TrEMBL record:
Domain annotation BLUF: ranges: 1-94
PROSITE patterns the record matches: BLUF
Listed name of the protein: BLUF domain-containing protein
Pfam families listed in its UniProt record: BLUF (PF04940)
One GO MF term: FAD binding
Taxonomic source organism: Acinetobacter faecalis
InterPro entries xref list: Acylphosphatase-like_dom_sf, BLUF_domain
Length: 136
């Protein structure tokens, strides 16, 4: 099993943002169920952070699909690595809304807003752990 995490910036204006988020989540859940991918999506301050786990072949297909999606730009791929166990066994796609725990974590890292592209690898790992632990 492999894990990939990425960050990107929304291209949706405020009028279309909620509709785009709903569509992204539906498409992600459908694709992930069909391809045995599990993960989490966080969105705040116009930025997406997503971490996904599954078979490398399925994740490779998904990366190409994500790169072509016009609802976001500035696709930044963090480490793409093998993992021994899944962090997301219960979710085809967990969605975490803007959250005070994540906001505080970003402030503790020196960022006033959610800017996942600026995180270092160890900070990405810490963010994943926080997202897994948040109960919706």
């Amino acid at each position: 099993m492999y894990q990939l995490c990425y960050a990107s910036c929304s291209t949706s204006d405020n009028d279309k943002l909620l509709e785009d988020l709903r569509n992204i989540l539906k498409e992600a859940r459908d694709f992930n169920v069909d391809h045995e991918i599990r993960g989490v999506l966080y969105f705040a301050d116009q930025y997406f952070f997503q971490c996904l786990e599954g078979k490398k072949e399925a994740l490779d297909i998904l990366i190409e699909k994500l790169k072509k999606d016009t609802r976001h730009k500035g696709f930044t791929l963090f480490e793409y690595k093998p993992v021994n166990k899944s962090h997301f066994v219960d979710w085809s796609m967990k969605y975490v809304r803007r959250n005070s725990v994540i906001q505080q974590y970003m402030r503790d890292q020196g960022f006033e807003l959610f800017r996942p592209k600026l995180l270092q690898p160890h900070q990405v790992e810490e963010l994943i752990t926080l997202l897994v632990d948040i109960k919706d």
